[in-house]
Amino acid sequence: MKTSTIFLVCLMSAFSVYPSSSEASNALDTKGAKPVEGVLLNEKETTVALKTIKDLQSGLNSMQARMYQKKTTPLLKEAVETEGTLTLKKPNLLNMSLSKPKPMRMVGDGEVLWVYRPDSKEAEKHVLASDLAASETIKFLSSAIAMSTQELSNRFDISAYSGSSILTLAMTPKSSIVAKYLAKINVSYRDGEAVPFRFEVISKNGSATITEFREVVLNPQLNSDAFRFKLPPDARITNLENEPQ
C-alpha cells in the first residue's frame, strides 16, 4: 500500500473506533458535512490568507483543546461520536485522551506512538520511523499548529472561502489513488486564530468525519511527562511484531 493510501486510511479511521453512544449524542451541533459557505477567494487572496495563518502560528509551540468528533457513514444507522482532550507540541508530540463513548489514549513522544485501551488493557506500539500510518496521523494532527503550505499544495488543490469571519480551506486530493477514497477535506479557521476550530473529512462513499476543537489553550504549561507513556504491567501489546524486547 502506498504512503498516500496509508495516510488516507489512517485519517479516515483513526478516531472513530467505537460504536455510537447516547451519552455523546449532543457533542456536535451538526448532523453531517455541510457545503462550504462564504465567498470564493482568488489566487492572490488565498495566498494572503495562508500567509496570515502561518504568521499567526509563528509564535505557537503547543496547544490543548477539548475535541469532539462525529462520523456518519451509510453503513451505520447512527453516527459514531467521540469526545476527549488533545495536546500537541511541535514538532510531533501528541497526547490524546478520549473519554466517550469508551476511554482510549494516544501518546506520541516523537519516536513511538502508543494506543492504549484501558477497558480491555490492550496496547499498540507504533514506531514512527517504520510505521507510515502512525507517522502520517501525527503529521496531520500536528498541522493544526504547524501548517505547511508547501506540503498542502503538493497534496491538494486548495480553494479558500471567506464568510462570517471564518476562513475555510477546501482541499481536494491531487493523487488519483487518494481520490478514489477521499472527496475533500475542509479546514475552518476563525479570523485572527492560529488553530482551526473545525475540520471535515468527506469520503467518496458518503462517509463524513467532523472534528471540532473547543476551549483551545495556546502554549499551555505542560508537565515534563505529558508525552511519555508507561505501559501498565497488566497490559497486553496486540501488535506483537512491534513488542519491545
Q: Which helices and strands occur, and which strands form pairs?
A:
Blueprint: H1 3-13, E1 39-40, H2 43-56, E2 62-72, E3 80-89, E4 93-100, E5 104-108, E6 112-117, E7 122-127, H3 132-142, H4 149-155, E8 156-163, E9 166-173, H5 176-179, E10 182-190, E11 198-203, E12 208-218, E13 236-237
Parallel strand pairs: 7-13
Antiparallel strand pairs: 1-8, 2-3, 2-12, 3-4, 4-5, 5-6, 6-7, 8-9, 9-10, 10-11, 11-12
Helix pairs in contact: 1-3
Describe this structure in words.
This protein is an alpha+beta fold and 245 residues long. The chain is 19% helix and 38% strand. It contains five helices and 13 strands. It has helices at residues 3-13, 43-56, 132-142, 149-155, 176-179, and strands at 39-40, 62-72, 80-89, 93-100, 104-108, 112-117, 122-127, 156-163, 166-173, 182-190, 198-203, 208-218, 236-237. A 13-stranded mixed sheet has the order 1-8-9-10-11-12-2-3-4-5-6-7-13. Strand 8 (156-163) and strand 9 form a beta hairpin. The protein is globular, with a radius of gyration of 18 Å. The relative contact order is 0.22.
Shape: globular
Helix run count: 5
Class by SSE composition: alpha+beta
Average the pLDDT over all residues and give the rounded result.
83
* Poorly predicted segments: 1-33
Rg over C-alpha atoms, rounded to the nearest angstrom? 18 Å
List keywords for this structure.
alpha+beta, 13-stranded mixed β-sheet, disordered N terminus
